């Protein structure tokens, strides 16, 4: 069948072109029949399209075959590096018209993100993901080895402002200047790291001005809070790469405790895992938890798996008889809380708030139990029990793009926790 069709096509072309053209066209047709006979015989495609394919299915003219990596916002909906990746380098393009100055491109390389080389979201209309292993290298130089590039972040904000590990050493590549997608023009998500390193803490869950304010950390740091010394007061910490800088007072100054734990790109959590009155730290990688009871470098004291990759992780004491903090996850607007730090099914399940709300857990009434609060823009909707229902407390605090925190910020007889924000 293939030989007959090749001969037939060759005879037709011979009547319409010179000898050289006929030989070229016959060669293309022959290649198409050899490489992809069903498509060429049964579908109305050109011989070139049938012969030229990449990654198993896509024609060579598709975006999936152009050698570049897809935007993160196409894959995840967010113009940020997804969990399990880190920005490992960046370049810029000048004069694009998209920004007042340079347009910056950040590669998000694998640390624990699982994927194989292919077209993003399985579509030939998207560029590839996890196919390129090139690294510019100006970000997270403390990580010697990373995996493939999962996706690209594109921004008008300099990378060293977004991630404090990025250096200002510049690289320029105009070839990507006009790569674009509608999702790049959506309103930017709130920052997940410090921009100005300002902290504003309020002692009570109510509308009003801050009771305590100070500067701590640097732009690009991840803010956390915990009772690091067991005095009953939550104080600031920042994470830079895999290094923790913890301070024992709510004031500006140098860190009282410095150590390394986990990997850059891990989700960081805080809790009193052993009930000794002092908070320890933990990291989540995929859906595996690595909890450490002391504020020092070393191996995890507790390791277990819980929830799904992509769940929002929460920590706290979920019942009045709890002696230690345990973990939970939020999926959509459903809470799955567990009373022990171990693999298993949830002990408490309920729905609260809307999908997409920012979730906080805190002791809003001083009864010793951490319960949910959802934040929409600057409004807090706090509930005093781990159950579905209406908010028991509604108040506003901070600005739209603030990073949200919860803690007891000063020594007093009251056990009520209040909101805090970092910028």
Ordered list of secondary-structure elements with their pairings:
Blueprint (H helix, E strand, L loop, with lengths): L1 H13 L4 H17 L1 H6 L4 H5 L1 E2 L3 E2 L12 H5 L8 E9 L9 E8 L7 E2 L8 E2 L19 E7 L3 H4 L35 E4 L10 E4 L6 E5 L8 E6 L2 E4 L10 E4 L6 E5 L8 E6 L2 E5 L9 E4 L6 E5 L9 E6 L2 E4 L10 E4 L6 E5 L8 E6 L2 E4 L10 E4 L6 E5 L10 E5 L1
Antiparallel strand pairs: 1-2, 3-4, 4-7, 5-6, 8-9, 8-27, 10-11, 11-12, 12-13, 14-15, 15-16, 16-17, 18-19, 19-20, 20-21, 22-23, 23-24, 24-25, 26-27
Helix pairs in contact: 1-2
Q: Summarize the biggest pleated sheet.
A: 4 strands, antiparallel
Q: In which order are the strands of the major sheet placed?
A: 9-8-27-26
Derived from helix and strand composition plus strand pairing, the structural class reads mainly beta
Counting H and I runs of at least 4 residues, what is the number of helices?
Answer: 6
Number of strands: 27
Number of domains: 3
CATH third-tier fold name of the largest domain = Tachylectin-2, Chain A
Portion in beta strands: 25-35%
Shape: globular
Distance between the termini: 70 Å
Structural commentary:
There is one protein chain. Helix 1 (2-14) runs antiparallel to helix 2 (19-35). 12% of the residues lie in helices and 30% in strands. It has six helices and 27 strands. 40% of the residues are buried. It has three domains: 2-51; 64-185, no CATH class; 198-422, Tachylectin-2, Chain A, CATH 2.115.10. The radius of gyration is 27 Å and the shape is globular. A four-stranded antiparallel beta sheet has the order 9-8-27-26, with no helix packed on it. A four-stranded antiparallel beta sheet has the order 10-11-12-13, with no helix packed on it. A four-stranded antiparallel beta sheet has the order 14-15-16-17, with no helix packed on it.
